Amino acid sequence: MAETGWLRYVLSCGLLTVPILVWNVVLTRFLPPALGSPEFWRDIPPLVAYGEHSLRLAVVVLPFLMPLDLATIAERRGLAVFVTGALVYFAAWIPLMIAPQSREHRVREELLT
Question: How many domains would you assign to the chain?
Fold first, then answer.
Protein backbone atom coordinates (compact mmCIF):
# COMPACT_ATOMS: atom_id res chain seq x y z
CA MET A 1 0.00 0.00 0.00
CA ALA A 2 1.42 3.35 -0.98
CA GLU A 3 -1.22 5.72 0.43
CA THR A 4 -0.11 9.09 1.67
CA GLY A 5 -1.46 11.52 4.22
CA TRP A 6 -4.27 10.60 6.59
CA LEU A 7 -5.41 7.59 4.52
CA ARG A 8 -2.14 5.88 5.44
CA TYR A 9 -3.22 5.94 9.08
CA VAL A 10 -6.83 4.94 8.40
CA LEU A 11 -5.53 1.78 6.71
CA SER A 12 -3.27 0.96 9.62
CA CYS A 13 -2.38 -1.93 11.88
CA GLY A 14 -5.01 -0.55 14.24
CA LEU A 15 -7.66 -2.10 12.00
CA LEU A 16 -6.34 -5.49 13.07
CA THR A 17 -7.13 -4.69 16.71
CA VAL A 18 -10.76 -3.67 16.06
CA PRO A 19 -12.20 -7.24 16.11
CA ILE A 20 -10.39 -7.93 19.40
CA LEU A 21 -11.63 -4.69 20.96
CA VAL A 22 -15.20 -5.42 19.84
CA TRP A 23 -14.92 -8.98 21.21
CA ASN A 24 -13.78 -7.61 24.58
CA VAL A 25 -16.52 -4.97 24.81
CA VAL A 26 -19.35 -7.29 23.76
CA LEU A 27 -18.38 -10.44 25.67
CA THR A 28 -16.76 -9.19 28.88
CA ARG A 29 -20.11 -9.42 30.68
CA PHE A 30 -20.10 -13.21 30.15
CA LEU A 31 -16.84 -13.76 32.06
CA PRO A 32 -16.86 -15.11 35.63
CA PRO A 33 -17.31 -12.42 38.32
CA ALA A 34 -13.72 -12.82 39.57
CA LEU A 35 -12.52 -11.55 36.17
CA GLY A 36 -14.92 -8.59 36.11
CA SER A 37 -13.45 -5.12 36.49
CA PRO A 38 -14.69 -4.16 39.99
CA GLU A 39 -13.68 -7.49 41.49
CA PHE A 40 -10.37 -7.67 39.67
CA TRP A 41 -9.23 -4.13 40.51
CA ARG A 42 -10.42 -4.18 44.15
CA ASP A 43 -7.02 -4.71 45.86
CA ILE A 44 -4.70 -3.19 43.26
CA PRO A 45 -2.97 0.02 44.45
CA PRO A 46 -4.05 3.18 42.59
CA LEU A 47 -0.53 3.94 41.33
CA VAL A 48 -0.31 0.50 39.71
CA ALA A 49 -3.82 0.89 38.28
CA TYR A 50 -2.93 4.29 36.72
CA GLY A 51 0.18 2.81 35.15
CA GLU A 52 -1.82 -0.14 33.81
CA HIS A 53 -4.49 2.12 32.30
CA SER A 54 -1.88 4.41 30.72
CA LEU A 55 -0.02 1.51 29.13
CA ARG A 56 -3.31 -0.02 27.96
CA LEU A 57 -4.22 3.26 26.24
CA ALA A 58 -0.81 3.34 24.52
CA VAL A 59 -1.24 -0.26 23.33
CA VAL A 60 -4.62 0.62 21.82
CA VAL A 61 -3.48 3.88 20.18
CA LEU A 62 -0.02 2.98 18.83
CA PRO A 63 -1.17 0.41 16.22
CA PHE A 64 -3.23 3.16 14.57
CA LEU A 65 0.03 5.05 13.99
CA MET A 66 1.61 2.09 12.16
CA PRO A 67 0.79 1.77 8.45
CA LEU A 68 -0.42 -1.66 7.37
CA ASP A 69 1.73 -3.05 4.59
CA LEU A 70 1.58 -6.57 3.16
CA ALA A 71 4.09 -6.18 0.35
CA THR A 72 6.75 -8.64 1.52
CA ILE A 73 6.67 -12.27 2.57
CA ALA A 74 7.78 -11.32 6.10
CA GLU A 75 4.82 -8.91 6.43
CA ARG A 76 2.38 -11.57 5.26
CA ARG A 77 3.91 -14.06 7.72
CA GLY A 78 3.54 -11.47 10.46
CA LEU A 79 -0.14 -11.11 9.57
CA ALA A 80 -0.55 -14.90 9.71
CA VAL A 81 1.08 -14.99 13.16
CA PHE A 82 -1.18 -12.15 14.33
CA VAL A 83 -4.33 -13.89 13.03
CA THR A 84 -3.27 -17.17 14.66
CA GLY A 85 -2.66 -15.38 17.97
CA ALA A 86 -6.02 -13.61 17.76
CA LEU A 87 -7.79 -16.92 17.14
CA VAL A 88 -6.05 -18.46 20.16
CA TYR A 89 -7.09 -15.39 22.20
CA PHE A 90 -10.72 -15.80 21.13
CA ALA A 91 -10.62 -19.54 21.85
CA ALA A 92 -9.23 -18.92 25.35
CA TRP A 93 -12.39 -17.00 26.27
CA ILE A 94 -14.77 -19.78 25.26
CA PRO A 95 -14.20 -22.13 28.25
CA LEU A 96 -14.49 -19.16 30.62
CA MET A 97 -17.86 -18.24 29.14
CA ILE A 98 -19.22 -21.78 28.77
CA ALA A 99 -18.28 -23.01 32.25
CA PRO A 100 -17.79 -19.95 34.47
CA GLN A 101 -18.40 -21.97 37.65
CA SER A 102 -15.91 -24.74 36.92
CA ARG A 103 -13.71 -26.03 39.73
CA GLU A 104 -10.71 -23.90 38.73
CA HIS A 105 -12.77 -20.72 38.81
CA ARG A 106 -14.21 -21.56 42.22
CA VAL A 107 -10.70 -22.09 43.60
CA ARG A 108 -9.53 -18.74 42.15
CA GLU A 109 -12.59 -16.94 43.51
CA GLU A 110 -11.94 -18.41 46.97
CA LEU A 111 -8.33 -17.20 46.78
CA LEU A 112 -9.44 -13.70 45.75
CA THR A 113 -11.94 -13.34 48.61
Answer: 1
